[in-house]
Write a structure and sequence with these properties.
Distance between the termini: 78 Å
Radius of gyration: 19 Å
Helix content: 25-40%
Structural class: alpha/beta
CATH topology of the largest domain: Nucleotidyltransferase, domain 5
CATH architecture of the largest domain: 2-Layer Sandwich
Strand content: 15-25%
């Protein structure tokens, strides 16, 4: 019986993919960083329907654990956990940046290089990879001026606050000039590199490092727990 893995990642867009016996089958990236709740499950159903795969055919779920924004990231993780319990299949917890790093290494085995995604707040999530796409340092979150002077790939290079050295191979792929950086396209104009190939996440679910079940937020959530409630009643004399 063949092994069919579903890949889910919501660290950037809603990214869903399928792999059979370690080979990518189909993937789709939709929406933006604020539409995960509305789009995730309809996209899962659509991808599975197009691939003619039923829920009972699934052997496991590979889920991207980030780093990524708190709200969007937990949507994908919660969905993977829910499907795992309902279908009684395992979940594989993988770093989202590792999938982007692997994707780049499969076609451009040059290294070391940095993979980055948009962390908002004028910051980037990033990690360093070798020529085989293996993470050797990170992941981190910082402003772009704290990132080492290496060629960068990944959707983070298109963030308006990114000031990084674009990998020349990526520049050629995008058909843009390397310098000045303002010539880089907008995320809408380069939508094919904004998302993550979730079919690769699924295909390499066993090979990519396990990062554990805790999401890689890398920083505290915007919302804080409320403090002690103050009394508005006058103190007893």
């Amino acid at each position: 019986m063949s092994e069919v893995i579903l890949g889910i990642d919501t660290s950037t867009q809603v990214c869903v993919g399928l792999a059979r016996d370690g080979e990518p089958v189909l993937s789709e990236s939709v929406g933006d960083s604020r539409s995960h709740v509305e789009l995730l499950m309809p996209t899962v159903k659509s991808v599975m329907k197009d691939a003619k795969i039923r829920r009972r055919d699934l052997s496991g779920i590979a889920v991207g654990m980030g780093p990524g924004p708190y709200t969007g990231l937990r949507v994908g993780i919660a969905a993977a956990q829910m499907l795992s319990v309902a279908l009684k299949i395992p979940v594989y917890h993988r770093c989202s940046l590792d999938v982007l790093g692997l994707d780049w290494a499969l076609t451009n085995p040059q290294g070391p290089y940095i993979v980055c995604t948009d962390a908002r707040r004028k910051e980037l999530y990033w990690a360093i990879y070798d020529h085989q796409g293996r993470r050797v340092e990170g992941p981190y979150v910082s402003t772009s001026d704290q990132i080492p002077d290496l060629g960068c790939v990944g959707p983070g290079i298109l963030a308006p606050h990114a000031d990084v050295r674009v990998d020349p191979f990526l520049a050629i792929k995008l058909g843009v000039l390397i310098d000045p950086y303002e010539t880089l396209p907008s995320p809408e104009e380069a939508s094919d590199i904004v998302g993550l190939d979730a079919s690769l996440l699924a295909a390499y679910a066993h090979e990519l490092p396990d990062v554990g079940p805790e999401p890689l937020y890398l920083r505290h959530a915007d919302a804080d727990e409320p403090g002690r409630v103050k009394s508005v009643l006058p103190e007893a004399r």
